[in-house]
């Protein structure tokens, strides 16, 4: 059977969609007829589920999208395309849910976006097109949950693979603009405005932009360019130059800023000397009744500041320990320890001991963030064991629904990613093994063995965990503060997902 005949059937149905002349019943009747007609055709088998997803989203039908997901699960074969189609269909179902219901509660209670994200992250880099699109959509999921800082990290990764990928350029630009609205630094982040302006202009040169996001993206990009130019003139934008860190800086300072490890809001860019220091600070708000109880500060603020100081101490100490593990020769110390040769190619040394200790300290920061949030929003000083996964508990979800703060939602979403079989569970697994048994650093790692990790993977995991802790701190600071007023950059922002996927 000719592929062109199937395409004609697709085209006929899509025309009815465009004319707003297709009901759910008509679609399922069309599907039943074509199932019988094209059942054995390979092209039909490979394209029909993605097409159903497109139709379901276009006619705003949760029933049709659930049909697509059910069919994808029944015929699932591991491939980049199947994971891409599955992920996008879950995202579309999630989008319909938050459009038709209380969006905040849907993001808490529905698992559509989480399932979509997990499927998208299975798409491997061996297919560049699917990889770029899936990672962009994953970053947009993070943005949907208020995880702007992490979304920006993902857009950076995408644009390292393809600097001209238009939809990522657009979404990174709007991510920066969202970030600027919450930017607490005294210096105006004009560099980010300039970079956003450059991104938006460059995105228009990518011929893939419209096919991915639809015709409306062009108007959206032009509107955002004009908004930025109304805030800063074109002449001002051209005059803004990126600053290089000072030549005379220590190796430690260079290590920190190169890897974006300072706890400040500068995203690893250098603006001035304050870009080389940790400046996160929780602006705790007291009620008049609380402040009258103490001539200095209330117990709530005092406890908040103390635990925040402990987090800063743990993070900065972990950062320094890791740096010292690579910058200081430790061989003489190793010679004094009788490390046991276990005949399994594992490596033990003071260097690896420092890295492992640093990893554990970073993990501890996450638990302390849970304590900080619980005390601040419930005024309960807890002596019980409380871990980062408390942010997934029923108790926290009650706080979340009462407060309705996007930054608390971001913390909840991030904590869910650390649970078993989720995206960041490996961090939790490594921390538990380091604390209670052992982790082997090996030359030739067996990927199926949780007790083993390669030297390169350990470094990657450590750097990634730093960013998760930094993200959690960023969300915590904004959650504790009252709702920050937006800047005069009152820009229309949205995260653009894949348009056509079949």
Automatic annotation (TrEMBL):
UniProt superkingdom: Bacteria
Gene3D superfamilies in the record: Tetratricopeptide repeat domain
Domain (LA2681-like HEPN): residue spans on this chain: 299-481
A Pfam family per the record: HEPN_LA2681
InterPro entries according to UniProt: HEPN_LA2681, TPR-like_helical_dom_sf
Record-given protein name: LA2681-like HEPN domain-containing protein
Organism: Leptospira ellinghausenii
